[in-house]
Amino acid sequence: xxxxxxxxxxxxxxxxIEELENLSSVSEGVLTKEVESLKKKVDALRKNxxxxxxxxxxxxxxxxxxxxYTLDYIELMTDEFIELHGDRYHADDKAIxxxxxxxxxxxxxxxxxxxxxxxxxxxxxNFGMANPEGYRKAYRLMxxxxxxxxxxxxxxxxxxxxxxxxxxxxGQAEAIAKxxxxxxxxxxxxxxxxxxxxxxxGAIGIGMGNEVYMLENTxxxxxxxxxxxxxxxxxxxxxxxxxxxxxxxAVDLEEMKxxxxxxxxxxxxxxxxxxxxxxxxxxxxxxxLKKLGKxxxxxxxxQRIEKYSAIGEFKVVK
Amino acid sequence: xSWFKRQEENIQTSEKKxxxxxxxxxxxxxxxxxxxxxxxxxxxxxxxSGYHFRIGSKEYFDIIFxxxxxxxxxxxxxxxxxxxxxxxxxxxxxxxxxxxKTGLTDAARIGAGKMNGIDIxxxxxxxxxxxxxxxxxxxxxxxxxxxxxxxxxxxxxxxSQTGGARMMESVLSLMQMAKTSAKLALLDEAGVPFISYLxxxxxxxxxxSYAMLGDFNVAEPGxxxxxxxxxxxxxxxxxxLPEGFQTSEYLLEHGFLDxxxxxxxxxxxxxxxxSLISK
Lengths: 318, 279
Fold this sequence. Notes:
The complex is a heterodimer. By secondary structure, chain A is of the alpha/beta class.
């Protein structure tokens, strides 16, 4: 298990406990008492740290290399799943995956950004940064869901749409724009859940659900803290401050009424307990589907358009 | 010791101006100078090189609307600082200073009027206002323009010039992409024409929403148009970008524009286009 810098005190204590436990097995339980008290201490410490996370620490957790990714959630939430590939124009983007699966016996179209876990798979997934083909694949699958009257679930986890030469050449902006316009008019229930990073256009490009939720340790913003620092402070050094002023956590967005709710993660993060994290997401999906499933197609469109039309803060000066 | 000594601090210019004050104006691409009046008469296009100087909503409205007459919509919608955002400067102060400097209240204005006798509504961005960035006010005003076009069934033109979404409103800015696109979807369904007119520069979240969603995507020559900025792309791919990358001409070549038009021809060409689709 990899520890983040702010988790170091926890890591140190856990190591000590492990050492003592090895010792005590030799000396037949003499040290058990001390181990017990250390375990209590580490629980308290963990609770304290994770109840007082800064925004930057949430960003770090959202990027934790051991975090569950889209395919992990699909594996854990569905009874069966068939992945569907390709945009039918150019390629199959590996940074966005999608397909049809059954959740609790109900067929659902699931689409999400996909990151890799080791060097080779990270490269294969392009670090979760999709090219236009990814957005066009998502387009195709969402329209397919509409045709077969299947609800749509999208899982957002991207550091951004890929800023590459070929991506521009093949219309990154156009691909995302088309998706936004299409998603507004979808006749089926549509739920979006941010499971990791929600960076800008690359995130909203598959994220216009009737309902939007964020896992507790995720972020969603118009720009990453690093890029914000480099543009507004002209240096990369202010990323923590940028994370703070961008108000990019799940709780921030819930307060701004941009999302519908925060999904609790297992203590110390989703990566500590994949099953619990996936179950929490599944419970929310089922709850939302039950509610949205009662709405007629016209009502779903109306609700979605009104939802996004209402976002924005301004004053009216007569 | 030199024979003169500057008594005061060095002269500091706060910001590079696209259109410097003064009678003679230098054309950045050629280095030639041109008389301001001559430039104004040619709608701020250098007659020799065809270089398009950046102009704002005031000038575009003057060009597009017959006799420069129009009704402004959405002016009552004005910016606040919803996130209490501070970088090296407070967003609140940045807004106030920019308003004072530019005489604008935010980075887009809406005008309704006639273009060669045709009723139209125009949303025009202003790069001079925090890089033409899209925040809540730009989204809301353009939303008003789109709704107006749909309700009155009159064509919509949006003139973009922007670096993208406004960072100081974080996710609220991002959501304006969804908001404008959703409203454009309704406009599309109502069968009302939408011309997206792209000028230098049009990048980021604006390109990835309404600027690419026109029934007709039209650009001025030589404009920078893209999703990511060239600097970011260069850093990402670690090599130089080809000549002419992300220009209007490049986008036309790759199939994302219907045509490129000189600003001096724009009013007539867009009028012709609208009259062709009205049968």
